[in-house]
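quick one, 113 residues, struct below
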Amino acid sequence: VQLVESGGGLVQPGGSLRLSCAASGFTFSGYNMDWYRQPPGKGRELVASIASSGRWTNYADSVKGRFTISRDNAQNTMYLQMNSLKPEDTAVYYCHTVGLGYWGQGTQVTVSS
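---
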């Protein structure tokens, strides 16, 4: 099983990034998925969730209206489109498989001028 995040980087406040999570080694389309993040010096927090089919999504209040979670089951990939980024969005972002407990290695997002 492997979850590989990519797309992180340094961006100015107000900017955008698109994170990807490439999955392999399990039936990706059969599981709900999450994006989590861990800000510097803080615990890991849930950012967004998506159903296995993509039919429903949920977001943390702090990112509603700015972030969009999506998935492409044909490509075994999940995405997080992040717009209007703020310095408080700075964190390591992880993808997670609900029910199986798999985690990726994380990708760093830094929002700073």
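The longest strand covers residues 17-24.
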